[in-house]
Amino acid sequence: MAGRVIPAKPDRVDGEAQVVIIGAGACGLTAALRARAAGADVLVLERDSSPSGSTSMSSGFVPAPATRFQRAAGIADDTPDLFLADIMAKSKGSSRADLARLASVSIGPALEWLSDHAGIEWIVLDDFLYPGHSRHRMHAVPEKTGAALE
Asked: 0.70 exceeded by the pTM?
């Protein structure tokens, strides 16, 4: 899945691709990895001189239920339904339930995919129960920084 970085002039990018992704932050790069793994020719466009994004400025913590990383840490009682209930409770019901459900069932498999296909090592932060969460489900890379994710 190796790629290459081609500096381009802001007003012109030469090349063709089946999938074009705007932004080389954590979400954009994850989408690029997933599309490439599916066999697509991918072009990632990033306005900054080096790939980054808001994730690089954050802690990079990702809440996810029912992961193998939780089970390895002895946390076996978390489910997407519990995560959804926590989201809806924390937002006092103002979150769109359909989108919250999609997130609650998708994020665990996404973290496991990133581990399997991109070699990202996840740990579960089980020393503190984050506000709004009924289970220890906050995942991070060992460095506990968003910059280490990108």
From this structure: yes
